[in-house]
Amino acid sequence: MGKVTVITSGKGGTGKSTVTAGLGAALVRRGCRVLLIDCDAGMRGIDLMLGVSGELVFDIADIINGNCSPSSAIYPCKTMPELYILPAPQNVRDELSPSVMKQLTDAIKGYYDHILIDCPAGIGSGFETAAAPADRAVLVANAEPLSVRSCNKVREKLRYCAIDDISLIINKFNERRFRRLGVYEDLDAIIDEAGARLLGIVPEDGNASSASQKGLPVEGRMKASYAFDRIAARLDGKEIPLLIE
What we know:
Layout: E1 3-8, H1 16-29, E2 34-38, H2 46-49, H3 60-64, E3 75-76, E4 83-86, H4 98-108, E5 114-118, H5 125-131, E6 136-141, H6 145-160, E7 166-173, H7 175-181, H8 187-194, E8 197-203, H9 206-213, H10 223-235
Helix pairs in contact: 1-10, 4-5
């Protein structure tokens, strides 16, 4: 039975969708079968990152409306077998309710080792829908005050949704910029303020950003790929030492 993880953030611009796609690819490299569910109705983007946007006919709303079977709305990533995407609706009005989202996810999770849900930023109705079927949550934040502070609100909301297994990824980390900013004494201060255990640190990586924009997986010798591989191992239950990756 697949483990369901919601990937979320308090504010936009943290690179949450890139983290979702990067973790999905890393889990596949570990031999897992992975489904990415895009829950950002009206603003979907995972399909572009995986290079399948030109093939989309159906989305998650079509399943609920009876226009297609679940398998018809789930698309394989051609460059990485065993990585699949269920796209979000194009229109916000087609956003699923939390209860329907949970029913759908429960019905299909047996076919995957992991399901990663890309949650809209913030704590609106889209957040509640994305969090409804989740067993655990990953907060994505950048090493800056507005991003880290917003984690508190998201963490409170996750616990209201009965999700207590909450971890943190610090994304797009640039140590030189972090030291120059001088807001936090060290990374422990960020972890304390976010209020979640650290799952990993993804370094700022222009090559990874470029790959995502071109619809290519983050892999190979990219710095971010190495970080995602280590984070995926932890997410998969392995004990991997934490490093500034």
